[in-house]
């Protein structure tokens, strides 16, 4: 997973960042809801596959105690420099092995903007298991993915069935499509535990 992304980052080929920006209006609305549901107290979030940290910074700016995790050292180094956040906010780690990556535990929110869809089925199951192990009982997962397209380069894509298969014990509580006029629109899945 890391070698292909590391090469793409160094070459300046980061279409997933544009897709993340395109999904920002929907993400902002979803975060508004999460914040309304947790008006007081500590709110801990983890940005899975954080890349250069734009969404981690968004969470911090909105008042979350947020940490980003990514397995591409170069991207994490850029995240630290670019966002003005200390390096304690970012961990170089593999989302498939969250429990042992040094991110901590007891998270209220897991944010995934395109990471899950880049994993194979075994990796997705491992990631979902790690999320479950680190989640507070009332935690939420906000996961953005684009549907599978055989012609698409990079990323495997993922649909609702893929999400439900990996996240056993979680429920897709909401499904929100990005703006359909966006060239690479996708779907946000809001997962909760019953």
Task: Identify the notable features of this structure and list them briefly.
single chain, 194 residues, alpha/beta, Rossmann fold, 7-stranded mixed sheet, globular
Query: Termini separation (Å)?
Result: 32 Å
Strand content: 15-25%
Mean pLDDT across every amino acid position: 84
* Rg over alpha carbons: 15 Å
Largest sheet: 7 strands, mixed
Structural class: alpha/beta
Name the strands of the widest sheet in spatial order: 3-2-1-4-5-7-6
Could you estimate the helical fraction of the residues in percent?
25-40%
Shape: globular
The ordered H/E elements are HHHEHEHEEHEHEE
What is the number of helices? 7
Assembly annotation: single chain
Instruction: Give the second-level CATH assignment, the architecture.
Output: 3-Layer(aba) Sandwich
Give the CATH class: Alpha Beta
- The tally of strands reads 7
Under CATH, the topology can be stated as Rossmann fold
3D architecture notes:
It is a single chain. With 194 residues, the chain is an alpha/beta fold. The chain contains seven helices and seven strands, in the order αααβαβαββαβαββ. It has a seven-stranded mixed beta sheet, with helices on both faces. Strand 2, helix 5 and strand 3 form a beta-alpha-beta unit. The mean pLDDT is 84.
Please provide a brief summary of the model.
The protein is an alpha/beta fold and 194 residues long. It has a single domain (2-192), classed as 3-Layer(aba) Sandwich (Rossmann fold), CATH 3.40.50. It has seven helices and seven strands.
């Amino acid at each position: 997973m890391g070698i292909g992304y590391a090469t793409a980052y160094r070459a300046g080929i980061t279409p997933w960042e544009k897709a993340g920006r395109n999904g920002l209006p929907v993400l902002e609305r979803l975060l508004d809801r999460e914040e309304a549901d947790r008006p007081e107290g500590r709110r801990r979030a983890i940005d899975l596959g954080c890349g250069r940290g734009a969404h981690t910074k968004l969470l911090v700016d909105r008042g979350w105690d947020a940490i980003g995790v990514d397995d591409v050292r170069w991207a994490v180094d850029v995240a630290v420099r670019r966002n003005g956040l200390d390096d304690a906010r970012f961990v170089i780690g593999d989302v498939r092995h969250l429990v042992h990556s040094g991110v901590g535990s007891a998270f209220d929110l897991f944010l995934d903007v395109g990471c899950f869809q880049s994993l194979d089925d075994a990796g997705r199951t491992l990631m979902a298991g790690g999320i479950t192990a680190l989640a507070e009982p009332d935690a939420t997962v906000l996961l953005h993915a684009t549907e599978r397209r055989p012609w698409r380069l990079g990323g495997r894509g993922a649909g609702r069935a893929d999400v439900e298969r990996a996240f056993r014990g979680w429920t897709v509580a909401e499904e929100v499509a990005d703006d359909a006029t966006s060239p690479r629109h996708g779907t946000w899945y809001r997962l909760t535990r019953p």
